[in-house]
């Protein structure tokens, strides 16, 4: 079973209330990471579809996804290596993924637990659907389960830019 905690935020720029988005993950439980449900290390193949309301402008607008992964203590480097393989595939094969940045928390918790924060930018909803259903991404999630690498569910946040800038280039 795949467990994701999906947290969607509204974005006026894209003209859609992302709170109405529905994240569907194959046999998924969307239990909050703070809940008592601790069966979240059993990852399986992911069928990731974000169904945005049909009258929304979101389907053709760029948006960001922040994914926060919670590897078990001492397993962060393994997850990072696997994510780098996914990133290489994404860069070569998924042109609708505009950026895919892998980040590691700079300060582990007092217990030595770390987080991996993915900062992703998608051309549109179709690009996210393609990414989430790719064999490479599905295999990555399967490895997380088989190797028992995660201590909590991945948190996904869909966000739309409201200001600021991305680059000085």
TrEMBL record:
SUPFAM superfamilies: Dimeric alpha+beta barrel
Domain ABM: 63-159
PROSITE patterns registered for this protein in UniProt: ABM
Record InterPro entries: ABM_dom, Dimeric_a/b-barrel
Protein name: ABM domain-containing protein
Originating organism: Hortaea werneckii
